[in-house]
Backbone:
């Protein structure tokens, strides 16, 4: 199922972190809609290839969320391309993308590409620091980014990124109310089934990352909590 409009839940696995074969089997067989391979630091071609090959033993769709040009490889079902709308540095919104398309544009199968308009809201997370994101935003600021993603740039995905911390459900609710076409991804700090159910009731797709490495048993419960709603 490669239509993100039908997704409700995904696990994000970091190629720069260790995961046992037993844990990986449970994650891939959990009933989640997809595995997203991605992280903001230490992502290399070697660790991406290794994780892709291991996930490929299972039937679950597997997407690469591109964080640098060097680690892009064929073999994924989909490629998510983040564009950080609240970055103060144009490289993270369109600069690196321009370089990549200039160099590899001819090789790109555009049907496999899904652009994500990111709005990073946890100023302490690695992605915020890397991209110099302005996280000092009001609810109206965030809604404006969502409107830009959908109506100016026609991005298929708007990603509310609270990586490492649980977000504000009221902001997620307001953003969801604003979006008509664009799919709303929520990620950040989900470590229990209750949190997954809450954000799953507001966003279209819930992404669970760090909990996989911190408490796998609880992380696995997030799938049912979101999909049984
Ligand atoms: C041959 C072949 C297969 C060709 C395919 C062609 C293809 C896919 C081409 C892509 C072209 C293209 C436009 C590429 C874009 C290049 C690029 C480098 C864009 C920049 C992406 C970007 C803005 C990265 C910034 C960081 C970011 C937002 C990462 C997303 C992941 C994220 C937020 C992770 C969370 O952080 P984490 O690491 O988990 O943090 P903790 O460790 O603290 O948990
Ligand atoms: O790691 P967590 O905090 O679950 O966040 C998931 C994802 O949104 C990170 O890009
Ligand atoms: Mg992480």
Residues:
């Amino acid at each position: 199922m490669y239509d993100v409009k039908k997704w409700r839940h995904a696990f994000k696995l970091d190629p720069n972190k260790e995961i046992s074969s037993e844990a990986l089997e449970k994650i891939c067989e959990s009933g989640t809609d997809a595995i997203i391979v991605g992280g903001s630091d230490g992502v290399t071609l070697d660790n991406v290839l290794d994780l892709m090959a291991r996930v490929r033993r299972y039937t679950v769709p597997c997407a690469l969320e591109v964080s640098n040009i060097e680690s892009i490889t064929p073999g994924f079902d989909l490629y998510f391309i983040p564009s950080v709308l609240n970055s103060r540095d144009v490289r993270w919104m369109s600069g690196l993308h321009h370089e990549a398309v200039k160099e590899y544009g001819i090789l790109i199968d555009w049907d496999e590409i899904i652009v994500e308009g990111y709005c990073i809201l946890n100023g302490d997370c690695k992605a915020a620091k890397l991209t110099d994101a302005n996280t000092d935003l009001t609810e109206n600021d965030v809604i404006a980014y969502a409107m830009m993603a959908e109506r100016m740039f026609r991005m298929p995905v708007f990603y509310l990124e609270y990586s490492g911390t649980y977000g504000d459900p009221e902001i997620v609710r307001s953003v969801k109310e604003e979006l008509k076409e664009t799919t709303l991804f929520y990620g950040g700090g989900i470590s229990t089934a209750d949190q997954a159910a809450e954000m799953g009731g507001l966003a279209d797709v819930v992404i669970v990352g760090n909990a996989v490495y911190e408490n796998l048993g609880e992380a696995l419960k997030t799938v049912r909590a979101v999909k049984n709603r």
